[in-house]
């Protein structure tokens, strides 16, 4: 296991794009890119908790980047000159800010929302408040609900299936993706026991990697939940991404988690980017 970068804040959204690794530092309000020589560049400055991002297909330039802005309750797009513009308004969908985003090979952006005040805790009862929205330029609509803290998401290489990490239900949940981007046929893709999945990615064998903050690990599971591989860490794993030019490196972003009540004032994150050789290269989206 190699350490790529350390000493940062709460890290999320590792992505491989244009030959670089990109990560979001939530507590610093920054998106950074890291090249093969380890040089770090600040690409975006935007204060938002959460602050997640992904890339539209077909472009290697910065204008491919979309980010979720909790501060503006919107999806924003990065321009070539480094400014951010509104890509889609999310205000009508929820009084709370969005969480994660994944963009499939057709350019459909899926954005989820836990839909409650994280620091205060979820409302009692069923159904769960979390939702997934389908976002295209200028439009956003809810395409799935009753999700218990939707977190990381991934889309299979054939654009046919969206997998959502439901942290509070300890499982990965799958949906069929329709021709219009709508979601149907909800089902449990993998029951993870007591684990609470955060960021996820997929590989060419059809397995999923998920990051787990509480258990300080990344785990690779087959459809159905069989554990295939495990990477143990000394701090919480927030997300993972199969990247590199051959997509055969598992990049993990990890930090010391103090609990939701300390999110605003905690300083000893020591956010770290780690690289581990993967047994099977990545596939699908988030992609490379």
Automatic annotation (TrEMBL):
Gene3D superfamilies in the record: TolB, C-terminal domain
Residues given in the record as substrate binding sites: 99, 117
Domain SMP-30/Gluconolactonase/LRE-like region: 12-256
Key words, A-Z: Hydrolase, Metal-binding, Zinc
Record text on cofactor binding: Binds 1 divalent metal cation per subunit.
Keyword field contains Protein biosynthesis: no
Listed cofactors: Zn(2+)
Active site: 198
Residues reported in the UniProt entry to bind a divalent metal cation: 151, 198
Family the UniProt entry places it in: Belongs to the SMP-30/CGR1 family.
PANTHER family linked to this entry: LACTONASE DRP35, LIPOPROTEIN-RELATED
Protein name: Sugar lactone lactonase YvrE
